[in-house]
ThiF family adenylyltransferase (Rugamonas fusca), 289 residues
Amino acid sequence: MSDTFSYQEAFSRNLGWVTPAEQSVLRNKRIAIAGMGGVGGIHLLTLARLGVGAFHVADFDQFDLANFNRQAGAAMSTLGQPKVDVLAAMARDINPKLALTRFPNGVHEDNLAAFLDGVDLYVDGLDFFAFAARQATFAACARLRVPAVTAAPLGMGTAVLTFLPGRMTFEDYFCWGQRSDTEKALRFLVGLAPAGLHRAYLMDPSSINLAQRRGPSTIMACQLCAGAAATEALKILLGRGPVLAAPHGWQFDAYRNRLVRTWRPGGNRHPLQRLAMLMAKRGLPGGRP
């Protein structure tokens, strides 16, 4: 079947929103995505359909039933299979000529150099609670001057932060340092979405417990994340349009029909952020936001 594949024809309907020259640029770009679960898998498929020609993808996990509500590769036919293998096959089914390198042990200090080698952009798809991997990956992006985008699935919407070379870093914004995982979770959630649009319609607050590393999710949020992150990726890779870099961010909530842009100079050091974290700690058991 790959003999009948034509890149130009497969992605011809992108033209108009991008020029033929820009489509050629996307074909020659390489994106790294860590995590092939809820958002990461949909990131890969969305960017593959955009015509991006090369990827580094990482994940150590396998699909199980708890993934069915939101993960693109989760199905009865893939139960127990490695996520990175399933999503790589799905992406190659879209573009058989993809240059795709798998990292089946996930990302860690020993393989980050290879994972980010030659990439033009990093898109974050790690599990919310993958603190060590996320902290190391974003630190490496800052060191290697690799742009990085994270789009968080919150409620039925997405919160987006972009970190550009020479600008505010992930660590500068979230202020994780050597804090406990529970504290990192709180700082990550409050920092991702200062507007907190999703909190108004959470029906059961007990479903979120940062200390126990659990929380609810929706497929709508994951799909919105992929659209938002891919659009940021397009602008960064093509050098087109404004990119709101941290400490600027934005949150869109489809349930509430609201879009809010946020600006937090100093990130979680900002007085409003410090107040939000204090209220979360005091108001809800277990550090629930």
